[in-house]
Design brief:
The complex is a heterodimer. Chain A is mainly alpha-helical. Chain B has 17 helices and no strands. The chains are: A mainly alpha, B mainly alpha.
Chain lengths: 197, 522
């Protein structure tokens, strides 16, 4: 064996920021996924509009009020998520649990409003490409919200178990990173799908 | 980067190699439940080689059928063709390199484990499950344009599962590269293969989600729609085929460039000349292989766009730069003509052929983009280059993977077969692409297709020989820790490496830490 085995005195074991790096990679992949779906959505819409047709089928009305509420819910949740990162870095346990809890409540509120919006739209998935596109994109985003909530929940339990603290809060920071990616994706969907119909 | 200043934590108990437990054979549960990166890597390599044999067989059958020899029932021709494409890329090339990367990259960067060992294991088993379901769904008359609706749904679900699993495996390897490097190993000091995997993984991470989006739309439309647009049987393949065409096809050969770099430097005994330039060339090759924008179905005039034509022509430059860099290193050193070096050089030459074909492909007046044959030839050449690169890499790293040297005789034979196959599997189809301009070629279409089928069979034979060579190696003499006089960290540990990979490691001060040590001692 080559004699490379002379080490300086061992450094104290310290977990590298693996989870932060991995979450950044996953968020990048998720952004590409939604970018691809949106590109197809906008291309097909532009094609239809350019020949003078309406994008949404007759009788289908996608209101803007609910998407607005959903957007502000998620924007607020981004603030509470960052509040959690700030609190755990300063070992403020009460604020950490409170902010993580409020973030999860915002997540539930978002899903609740999304299901209400689905019931209002009266868009049949089987009738047209519009239905397929709209439900695939918003459905995939709902799945991302659920994944982000599970992530936050796991990190909340880890914080409760004492695994997250002022010197080690990568878990909550990375959950926050993924949460913010979720919010950014929704902000783009909100403009591309609900505002410009 | 601050995160490399301390060595990562050592492997946990759950990540121990089940073959190191002391028993002759590990328990099934220990083998299946292992998060040891070496065990996962071996599993990937074994199953990907198996799927690779099937993939090249399907490629050969498709070409035989196109050559007028009816070996397939009429209603199965399209399905064998599309499954062959999925198999070449998603069941063979990508998982094979992911497997070699899962095994070798942690060793090369001086890590004790792959990042997230359990996630890496989950990725492998999910990929295997998805791949088996895909094959079963195709067998039940599913797949692209299949006849049984539920089986078609199932095959798209399986494709989605495969893509997600490969993405997860990629994230684990990329995170290892970014966060688990040993002290002193800056990102520009990682061995060439690790750099190739870093570039390849980044491109896969950005393009495979786009394929997933296509798959999701087809699945939702087919399963819940009528189908109205995306899921219509005749339109399904047109939404997916960008993944197998210029320029995206080149993304599956990026790790080859890295493997060749490591092999050339090691066998010549010299430090790689112009290392920074070669790293940049591999990066440029990766960027030029980003093909998510070239979806003809949504981007109809993509053939006329500067971006598409530009990358098709520019991708020749990094390959020429790499060939030049390798040649200058080989000239400077004492060359040992090993299987690995022969495989590496033939893989490089095959890629050169592929990028020249890519350059022709984007020249609009040649009208090659209408030719299905040319597209198939391009993919066959790229995947054949990947196969040769894999043959070279597996022979090079066989001591680390099996503890023994792979057979040089079988290895050289497999390189010979592989290179002959690589030329025959793709070039005749590329020539066939010119049939719209030269009537004589059209007359020879059947013969050209049959030659391409023989080429596919030859690559299949080469892969089978490599598998044999690896299996035979386990009965052969021990390789020793460093049979090639290696330069990078994987050769500083035992063959195969122990749990935790390294006892201790010196701080890395250059891209070839073992040469540094040698020089210090002399």
């Amino acid at each position: 064996m080559a004699a490379t085995h002379v080490l300086p005195s061992p450094a104290p074991i310290q977990r590298p920021r693996m989870i932060m790096v991995a979450t950044a990679f996953v968020s990048a992949a998720a952004l590409m996924f939604f970018a691809a779906l949106l590109a197809i959505y906008l291309t097909n819409r532009a094609e239809l509009v350019s020949v003078g047709e309406r994008w949404l089928p007759e009788g289908v009305d996608v209101p803007l009020q609910q998407p607005n509420v959903m957007l502000f819910t998620l924007l607020a949740s981004a603030v509470t998520m960052q509040w959690a990162v700030y609190a755990i870095a300063r070992n403020d346990r009460a604020n950490t649990y409170l902010s993580l809890g409020v973030t999860l409540v915002f997540g539930f509120a978002f899903i609740n409003m999304a299901s209400y919006l689905y019931s209002l739209m009266e868009l049949d998935i089987a009738a047209s490409q519009q239905g397929v596109l709209l439900y695939t994109i918003t459905g995939a985003h709902l799945a991302m919200v659920v994944a982000a909530m599970v992530y936050v929940l796991i990190m909340a339990f880890r914080a409760l178990a004492g695994q997250q603290g002022p010197h080690q809060h990568d878990g909550i920071s990375s959950a926050a990173l993924f949460w913010h990616a979720t919010v950014v994706v929704y902000a783009i969907l909100w403009y591309a799908i609900y505002v410009t119909k | 980067m601050a995160i490399t200043e301390t060595r990562p934590e050592t492997a946990l108990e759950a990540h121990i190699n089940p073959w190191d437990a002391g028993d002759e054979y590990p328990s099934v549960a220990a083998a299946l439940g292992s998060g040891d990166h070496k065990t996962i890597g071996r599993f990937y390599i074994g199953f990907a080689l198996l799927f690779g044999l099937a993939a090249w067989a399907m490629q050969g059958l498709s070409m035989l059928d196109a050559g007028g020899i009816e070996v397939l029932p009429d209603d199965a021709v399209g399905q064998v063709y599309t499954l062959g494409r999925f198999a070449l890329v998603l069941l063979f090339a990508v998982p094979l390199f992911l497997g070699v990367a899962t095994y070798v990259v942690p060793l090369q960067v001086g890590a004790s484990t792959v990042a997230f060992p359990r996630a890496a294991a989950l990725a492998f088993w999910t990929w295997l499950l998805g791949s088996v379901i895909l094959v079963v769904a195709y067998a039940a008359n599913g797949g692209v344009g299949g006849g049984r609706l539920k089986a078609v749904d199932l095959s798209y679900l399986a494709l989605g599962v495969i893509v997600v699993a490969l993405l997860l495996g990629t994230v684990c390897v990329l995170t290892t590269l970014v966060a688990l490097r040993t002290p002193g190993m800056h990102l520009d000091r990682v061995p060439m293969f690790s750099w190739g995997v870093f570039v390849a993984g980044s491109i896969w991470l950005l393009t495979m989600p786009v394929l997933l989006a296509n798959i999701a739309l087809i699945y939702v439309d087919h399963r819940f729609g009528r189908p109205s647009e995306f899921g219509v049987a005749a339109l399904q393949w047109s939404q997916l085929q960008w993944f197998f065409q210029q320029p995206q096809a080149f993304a599956f050969a990026i790790p080859v460039l890295g493997a060749v770099g490591d092999i050339v430097a090691t066998t010549s005994g010299e430090r790689q000349r112009h290392r920074g330039l070669l790293l940049a060339a591999i990066g440029a090759f990766g960027i030029f292989s980003f093909g998510a924008f070239a979806q003809e179905v949504f981007n109809e005039d993509v053939w006329e766009q500067v971006l598409f034509v530009g990358v098709g022509l520019l991708i020749v430059i990094p390959v020429l730069a790499l060939l030049g860099g390798w040649a200058s290193t080989l000239r400077a050193g004492k060359v040992r003509l090993t299987t690995a070096l022969l495989g590496a050089l033939t893989a490089g030459l095959t890629l050169l052929v592929a990028v020249v074909a890519s350059g022709l492909y984007v020249i609009k007046p040649l009208q090659l983009h209408d030719s299905v044959a040319f597209q198939a030839g391009l993919l066959a050449t790229v995947i054949a280059a990947a196969s040769l690169g894999a043959i070279a890499g597996l022979h090079h790293w066989a001591p680390k993977i099996t503890g023994h040297l792979a057979s040089e005789g079988l290895g050289k034979l497999s390189v010979l077969l592989g290179f002959a196959g690589a030329m025959l599997a793709g070039l005749p189809l590329c020539i066939l692409g010119f049939a719209n301009r030269f009537d004589g070629i059209n007359d020879a279409a059947d013969a050209l297709n049959v030659v391409a089928a023989l080429g596919a069979a030859s690559v299949l034979g080469a892969l089978a020989l490599t598998a044999l060579s690896l299996l035979a190696a386990t009965k052969g003499p021990d390789a020793g820790d460093d049979p090639w006089n290696g330069q990078t960290l994987e050769w500083a540990t035992t063959s195969p490496p122990p749990n935790g990979n390294f006892a201790t490691l010196a701080v890395v001060r250059s891209a070839e830490p073992l040469l540094d040590t040698e020089e210090e001692q002399s």
